[in-house]
Specification:
Blueprint lengths: L7 E15 L5 E15 L3 E5 L6 H8 L7 E6 L2 E2 L5 H10 E4 L13 H11 L5 H14 L16 H13 L5 E5 L7 H18 L2 E6 L2 H7 L2 E6 L2 E7 H6 L4 H8 L40 H5 L5 E4 L2 E3 L6
Parallel strand pairs: 3-8, 3-9, 6-7, 7-8
Antiparallel strand pairs: 1-2, 1-4, 4-5, 9-10, 10-12, 11-12
Helix pairs in contact: 3-4, 4-5, 5-6
Length: 324
């Protein structure tokens, strides 16, 4: 099926998420965590979202799931406006969208056994009988490659990789359409990371899940994502298929991130593009391009005018005055 015929499952338009914070003098300020993000995620794809820590990736994921009501903008999920949902419609939306969290130790209730953790989603949504919930919990363990013997264990009796499999199983319980993976392997050993990534890929092939994959590790994102959006200070600065991002990155920030990826061959090397300068505060009004203080190619126009995300070539979008 061509990309033109693939259904768009999730679309955000000019999505903003501002938080009110206080400075050192107690004065209220607006922190712009997500500042006008427009993306569209197709059904069945793995859409990558990368950027430095603090750029707003996780906040965007939680806003999409309606965990944070957006300040402004729109979120359209499966043809429905997700920002206006209430009551039963919101509960139905919760069943269709789930999240895999970064830290498998802190996202599981330490007082519950694995069996109870996996049965909890059905109890909250009043689905299945108690016996059916127990049976479904065992099936979920099979799906994620976890022995059923772990059903009677508490989270502290398991390794990090095993706990993350429980987190994945819990996210799958209600058969969602969209799963936000918030750095799901960053807290795991490298060998375990590969196992979890392969598991997520196999589950997507089997059940057709759609993933929003959030990470700061570009090597991981390259391995599993079809399209990638690069985020800086709450904004998307580049968006393209993964091969274009890695082979022909346009934005200076994207090029700097890619230059930092280690090459697993001592005979090969890559020129590092080190960024200098200060990162602007997300609480201050930024004149011109937000990246101008760190960009080695910033010009006069960058100082006074903020660039917008435009399509430079088919499927390749960039927010930079270098590509007018």
């Amino acid at each position: 099926m061509s990309e033109q015929n693939v259904k768009t499952l999730l679309e955000t338009k000019d999505l903003k998420q501002y938080f009110t914070v206080k400075d050192s003098h107690g004065k209220k300020q607006s922190l712009k965590a997500v500042d006008g993000v427009t993306i569209a995620i197709r059904e069945g794809e793995t859409f990558g979202l990368v950027g430095e820590s603090g750029c707003g990736k996780s906040t965007l994921g939680k806003t999409i799931l309606n965990l944070y009501p957006p300040t402004s903008g729109s979120i359209t999920f499966d043809g429905e406006d997700a920002t206006t949902l209430k009551g039963q419609r919101l509960r139905d939306f919760r069943k269709k969208t789930q999240m895999i969290f970064q830290d498998p130790s802190s996202c599981l209730n330490p007082r519950l056994r694995v069996r109870d953790i996996l049965c909890e989603p059905f109890a909250i949504h009043k689905l299945l009988t108690p016996d059916e919930r127990q049976k479904r919990a065992a099936e979920l363990c099979d799906m994620v490659g976890l022995s059923r013997a772990y059903l009677s264990r508490y989270p502290h009796e398991m390794s990090g990789g095993q706990k993350q499999r429980v987190g994945i199983a819990r996210a799958l319980a209600l058969e969602p359409k969209l799963i936000v993976c918030d750095e799901p392997v960053s807290a795991l050993d490298v060998s375990i990371q590969a196992q979890v990534l392969n598991l997520l890929s196999d589950l997507q092939t089997q059940f057709g899940f759609t993933y929003l994959f959030i990470s700061h590790n570009l090597s991981v994102v390259k391995h599993c994502c079809g399209r990638i959006a690069v985020m800086y200070l709450g904004r998307i600065v580049e968006l393209a298929p993964s091969d274009l991002i890695y082979d022909r990155a346009l934005h200076p920030y994207t090029r700097a991130l890619i230059s930092a990826i280690p090459i697993p061959d001592p005979a090969l090397s890559r020129e590092r593009k080190l960024l200098s300068g200060d990162i602007p505060s997300p609480t201050q009004k930024i004149e011109g391009c937000p990246f101008k203080t760190r960009c080695p190619e910033a010009g006069e126009k960058c100082m006074r005018e903020a660039p917008v995300l435009k399509e430079y070539e088919p499927g390749h979008f960039v927010s930079c005055h270098l590509y007018g």
